[in-house]
Design a protein that fits this description.
alpha+beta; ten-stranded antiparallel beta barrel; disordered N terminus
């Protein structure tokens, strides 16, 4: 008896998930249609656009009834095929959530660039203090929301991707000692396109991204490191980043474009012991992120059903073939960082790690520089 009751409970729950009544004005009359909850949410949100499209295509109630019958038939099999009852809604929610996950990952990659082990480089007069080199870094980025989006769009291959991966960066930097006064200034620049790096492209396929960063900072030495004294500096900087992340196939694609402004204050302590330089520091960053995304989906190809009827639903905007959205917000990120450098005459190798307390994201960097 319990098994019979459980069966009916599941059947009733499933039917409630699939059959949701919506009202649409067709030919001047308010008509009712039973559609999946996934589609009902879209209809209620975009009703005016749908009704405009129905008028433009001179659609009758019987036309919609026929197409909706095919739609409900498709959704009967959708849970097994896509692992969700709401693939269209998942696309929108997934991209909006990934936009929020992307913002802190970008900020953390910015904060690990142009980090020098010595808290202060030195003065140009007397002496000459200048350095330049390459930063190889990575910051943890959560991609669960992007995977959910890809699954809803029919990308089966994303199931094997991890829930997060190390977002890589390659940047050039330069730092110049202060003139007479105990300060130094630095700048960094980076551009990266994953589609041009075969080894990376193979790991994250079908995801692709590009990245551009430009930043500068200023440090003032509170302790200059005389005799046995450590070096201690305070300062601040600014970094601008823009780029994009995309995923595509013959049937669907999703693209995100982002801009990120990060201004930060920092404090750092270091001590040189022969050629070994340990260091530790902290940064507090104010970051402003803007992410815009767009997606297209050929549901008539993605869903296994009568392509002709499903294509009509796309034309009538009931099943939207184009989406867009985004995220625009700011946050404060406290980060601690530290590591060590090996200083061999003019060759400097720096190894560092960082931790974002708010988003609980780890970052790391290796820097190879020539410095005087």
């Amino acid at each position: 008896m319990k098994k019979i009751l459980a069966f009916f409970a599941i059947a009733i729950t499933t039917s409630l998930l699939f059959a949701v009544e919506v009202n649409i004005n067709v030919g001047g009359k308010n008509e009712k249609f039973d559609v999946p909850i996934d589609v009902a949410n879209l209809v209620n949100k975009n009703k005016s656009q749908i009704e405009d499209a129905l008028r433009q295509h001179n659609v009758s109630k019987s036309d919609i009834d026929k197409a909706v019958t095919e739609l409900n038939k498709v959704y009967d099999d959708i849970l097994d095929e896509f692992g969700t009852l709401t693939p269209v809604t998942d696309v929108e929610n997934g991209l909006n959530n990934f936009s929020k996950d992307l913002a802190p990952a970008i900020s953390n990659t910015q904060l690990m660039q142009n980090v020098w082990a010595e808290a202060w480089l030195g003065k140009l007069v007397p002496g000459f203090h200048l350095g330049a080199g390459i930063d190889l870094g990575a910051s943890q980025m959560k991609i669960t929301a992007l995977k959910d989006t890809a699954k809803a769009l029919g990308f089966d291959e994303v199931s094997d991707l991890p829930d997060s991966f190390a977002f890589p960066t390659v940047a050039g930097d330069v730092r110049l000692g202060g003139i007479l006064l105990p300060f130094d200034i630095g700048a960094s620049f980076m551009t990266l396109d994953s589609s041009r790096i075969n080894s990376l492209n193979e790991v994250i396929d079908p995801v692709k991204f590009d990245f551009f960063t430009l930043g500068f900072d200023f440090r003032w030495a509170i302790l200059e490191g005389k005799t046995w004294q450590p070096k201690f500096s305070v300062g601040g900087g600014y970094v601008f980043t823009k780029g994009g992340v995309g995923i595509s196939s013959d049937e669907a694609n999703a693209n995100l474009n982002f801009k990120n402004h990060t201004a930060y204050l920092q404090a750092q302590l270091s001590k040189k012991l022969l050629f070994f330089i340990p260091y530790i520091g902290a940064k507090v960053a104010y970051t402003k992120s803007e992410v815009n995304w767009s997606a297209t989906a050929q549901w008539d190809s993605i869903f296994d059903g009568d392509a002709g009827e499903l294509k009509k639903l796309e034309d009538w905007k009931i099943l939207p073939a184009e989406f867009s959205g985004g995220y625009d917000g700011w946050k404060i990120i406290p980060q601690v960082y530290g590591g060590f450098a090996l200083d061999f005459a003019i060759l400097n190798l720096t190894f560092g790690v960082g931790w974002d307390f708010v988003d609980r994201l780890a970052s790391a960097a290796v820097n190879v520089r020539l410095a005087w």
